[in-house]
Design goal:
This protein is α/β, with parallel strands linked by helices. The protein has helices at 12-25, 40-44, 56-66, 79-84, 86-105, 141-160, 186-196, 215-227, 248-256, 271-276, 285-291, 299-315; strands spanning 4-7, 30-34, 48-50, 70-73, 111-113, 116-117, 164-165, 167-169, 171-173, 199-202, 210-214, 239-240, 244-246, 263-266. It is globular. Bound molecules: 2-amino-3-ketobutyric acid.
């Protein structure tokens, strides 16, 4: 059984991925790590280490201590926050990846998962059904770091045979933990505000359509690509991944089905420009062909499931 290290285990994806990986590999075979503490289940459901991914020595010592062979590197600064902290974003997003790729090149670990994003695309990319191979001229520092990361991943695979696998996540929506510092974050916060306040002020304009995905689909995609036979992973940069797209106004209409008195107002800020630079829908047919990607949730199913879980949480 593989020994796995998840770096960034307290984040939006990490919190849920650790649990899924522990079900699959066994609790003691999945080490959760983060610079800060994580959810109770993550810290207490198996080994947990405090780790800054830029601390190379500690990284090596954890990999050695637990005989790690697979790393999921989720620690990153997202799009909106990266625009405020250019150099720290670049350092975390790039040096963190380079540390892991170097460890894999040295054969201390055998497999790496690293998330890319729809942010690799920019204003010159075709907006609708953006193909796998499209113009990538991002104008955010987050997008630039993800694009550079994709090139490094492919380079390390081609030159050194590193088994690195990656997905270009769209905006992710889940009920277990909140994202931080992203442009698609509104699509999570809106649910919490709908339940607790009956209203939400959106930082994007009503008709800004972005590609989105419900967390169970994102987790399944991550495990599927990591568990697929190596010969099926033909792209070692990163795969387009998609489920559905919506605008704040469309999401608000769907939320009203569950909270009829719900009100949304709009007060667009600097994140509007970031959102406008991204595609509104993504073609993930290459992922479907290569390793069988198929989403299960659409907007309606996702909204229903979010409310089912958040309302139970509120009662409990
Ligand atoms: C963000 O909004 O920054 C992220 C992303 C699309 O990668 N959710």
């Amino acid at each position: 059984m593989s020994k796995v290290l998840v770096i960034g285990a307290s984040g939006q994806i990490g919190t849920e991925l650790v649990e899924k990986l522990r079900e699959f590999h066994g609790a003691n075979n999945v080490v959760a790590a983060d610079i800060k503490t994580a959810a109770y289940e993550v810290v207490n459901g198996g080994p947990f280490e405090q780790l800054d991914v830029l601390d190379t020595q500690k990284l090596y010592s954890i990999i050695h201590k637990y005989h790690i062979d697979e790393v999921y590197l989720l620690a990153a600064m997202l799009s909106a926050k990266s625009e405020e902290k250019l150099l720290s974003a670049w350092r975390l997003n790039m040096d963190g990846l380079m540390n892991i790729l170097e460890i894999a090149r040295g054969k201390y670990i055998s497999k790496v998962f690293w998330p890319s994003s729809i942010a690799v695309f920019g204003p010159t990319t075709p907006k609708e059904n953006t193909p796998q191979h499209a113009v990538t001229e991002p104008n955010t520092i987050y997008g630039i770091s993800k694009l550079a990361g994709e090139r490094w991943c492919e380079y390390y695979h081609q030159k050194f045979g590193v088994d690195v696998r990656s997905l270009r996540y769209p905006g992710l929506i889940g009920y277990r933990s909140e994202p931080g510092g992203g442009t698609t974050d509104y699509a999570v916060q809106i649910f919490h505000d709908a339940i607790h306040k009956g209203e939400f002020e959106c930082f994007l304009e009503p008709d800004t359509v972005l590609p989105m995905m419900y967390m169970p689909d994102a987790l399944r995609a991550t495990l599927d690509i990591m568990h697929a036979p190596a010969e099926k992973i033909k792209l070692r940069s990163s795969y387009n991944l998609s489920a559905f797209s919506f605008s704040p106004a469309q999401l608000a209409r769907e939320i009203k089905q569950h909270v009829p008195e719900f009100k949304i107002t709009y007060n667009p800020d600097h994140r509007q420009k970031i959102a406008e630079s991204w595609p509104s829908s993504i073609d993930s047919s290459v992922a479907s062909q290569d390793w069988g990607w198929q989403p299960q949730y659409d907007l309606k199913a996702m909204t229903g499931d979010m409310f089912a879980h958040l309302k139970v949480g509120q009662e409990g």
